[in-house]
Specification:
The chain has helices spanning about 5-20, 115-140, 150-175, 180-185, 205-215, 235-245, 250-265, 270-285, 290-300, 310-325, 365-385, 400-410, 425-430, 455-470; strands at about 25-35, 40-45, 50-60, 65-70, 75-80, 85-90, 95-100, 110-115, 340, 345-350, 355-360, 390-395, 415-420, 435-440, 445-450. It is of the alpha+beta class. The strands form three sheets. It has a seven-stranded mixed sheet, covered by helices on one side. A four-stranded mixed sheet has the order 4-1-7-8, with helices on one face. Strand 11 (about 355-360), helix 11 (about 365-385) and strand 12 form a beta-alpha-beta unit.
Length: about 475
């Protein structure tokens, strides 16, 4: 995720070369009082990570120089000291400048030469410190407030200071509209929701307010400017929108993710990052059912050759993973399994008549199974069997005698099956790579829940059975 296209590099080179009087590359001279005879590091934000970009050695007087070719991609960078403290600088069109500061207070003591961007940036940071100090003081005073009037007055004061910094940013945008910092400031605020329409019952339409907020949340993010990636703002906005603002329902996530990706097509690096992050996030999600988003991303973007940054091996792995998950997505018709019982008699899963069917893939030699299978057996005998829930227990490994001995010893009275000749392809159809794994199918044998443990299974069926009795 740290590579940049030749077109972007050449474009940055031509612009910055002009801005720096024809000097190629970047040269940033620094002096930090209190940091001597030590290495200092230049890093950049990228999404939710930070990456090392350059290293310089501070001499006995605290002087050091970051320099190199080609020009650095624009964004907010971090200067990191050996004490693991850091401060931020803007690197954009001006890439030949200097600064000096003091390790006792980086922001207060910062002085820059040759970088209007950073002069403006540190003016804002100093103003922000004043506001933060006021807010901290007001927060502490809440503990000593004696009356409701005192508390209200403190909160009103907090709102005033919060409004002050917002007005500062808004005025900055008006005064310096051409700067990257102005673009960044525009992207920070959440949308202001207008007064909601009134419903026939006389109440405000709260759903309208939500959709307005959701539809306008990313309005001020420039998806055509990859400098946004190298700030602490972009990823936070993207992640909050996708994982918190948007309901965690696969179809809704997919709808919003596709809209964002279309906006990001204006810039190849933004396009790359958004696809990469959404794909990775939902591939590794622990929330049941959201793997459908991962499958969609692979089928729509990876399989169609739009993800040029993945090599052939990575592409093949993603496609293979999606193909393994696709048959067993929540809501899909469960793949039928034709297997053998303990006495080698054939048995067809679709012939089992029950309101619900639990499939549990397990192994008598698996340590975790030895804890979970007895719990599931107790649940089956105590609650499930009498309420129209059947269990289809699939033995994965071990010889027949070992499996039968375990079943008989623990009196497992559900449907016990196995596939000693690997004819059903159940590992691929149900994506089985560990044990135990539980799937829950409804009466029509659609997958309703998957990869939940026995305790969750108990909670689920206690509620289902309780709700059924209330009807």
């Amino acid at each position: 995720m740290k590579k940049f296209t030749a077109v972007l590099i050449l474009l940055a080179f031509s612009i910055s070369g002009f801005a720096n009087g024809g000097k190629p590359g970047y040269q940033i001279k620094g002096n930090i009082k209190g940091i001597t005879n030590a290495d200092v590091y230049l890093a950049n934000y990228y999404g939710d990570k930070q990456y090392l970009k350059d290293t310089a050695h501070a001499d006995a007087t605290g002087n050091f120089i970051f320099e190199g070719k080609p020009l650095l991609p624009g964004g907010i960078y971090l200067v990191v000291t050996p004490r693991k403290t850091y401060f931020e600088i803007i690197i954009d069109k001006e890439q030949n400048f200097s600064f000096e500061t003091d390790s006792l207070d980086f922001i207060k003591n910062m002085k820059t030469k040759g970088s209007i961007d950073n002069e403006l940036f540190y003016g804002y940071l100093r103003e922000g410190i004043i506001v933060q100090q006021k807010m901290d003081s007001l927060t502490k005073s809440l503990s000593s407030a004696k009356t409701k009037h005192d508390t209200t007055a403190i909160y009103d004061n907090m709102k005033t200071w919060n409004q002050h910094i917002n007005e500062y940013r808004n005025q900055f945008i008006k005064d310096h509209p051409e700067t990257f910092l102005a673009k960044l400031f525009k992207s920070i605020p959440d949308p202001e929701v207008p007064k909601a329409p009134i419903l026939p019952n006389g109440r405000p339409d709260s759903i309208w307010s939500y959709y307005y907020y959701r539809n306008h949340y990313l309005d001020n993010i420039d998806f055509g400017d990859n400098r946004m990636l190298r700030t602490p703002v972009f990823h936070q906005k993207l992640e909050k929108f996708i994982t918190q603002t948007v309901p965690q329902i696969p179809d809704t996530i997919i709808f919003e993710a596709d809209k964002i990706i279309e906006r990001a097509r204006k810039d190849s690096e933004m396009f790359k990052y958004v696809i990469w992050w959404v794909t990775y996030h939902y591939e590794t999600s622990k929330i049941m059912g959201l793997d459908a988003v991962f499958v969609h991303m692979v089928e729509k973007y990876v399989q169609t050759g739009q993800t040029w940054w993945y090599d052939s091996t990575q592409t093949a792995k993603l496609i293979d993973r999606a193909k393994k998950i696709s048959p067993n997505l929540i809501g899909n018709k469960a793949p039928n399994l034709k297997m053998l019982d303990m006495y080698m008699n054939p048995i067809d899963m679709n012939e089992i008549k029950s309101d619900w069917l639990i499939i549990v893939f397990w192994d008598p030699t698996c340590g975790h199974c030895k804890k979970e299978i007895p719990k599931l057996d107790s649940l089956y005998k105590e609650l499930l069997r009498a309420n129209g829930v059947e269990v289809w227990g699939v033995n994965l490994e071990g010889d027949q005698k070992e499996w039968m001995d375990y079943v008989n010893e623990h009196h497992l009275e559900w449907i016990n099956v196995w596939d000693p000749y690997n004819q059903s392809n159940f590992r691929k159809l149900y994506d089985i790579y560990s044990t135990p794994v539980i799937y829950i199918l409804d009466k029509d044998r659609n997958i309703r829940y998957k990869r939940i443990d026995v305790d969750q299974t108990r909670e689920l069926f206690e509620k289902i059975i309780s709700d059924k009795k209330k009807k």
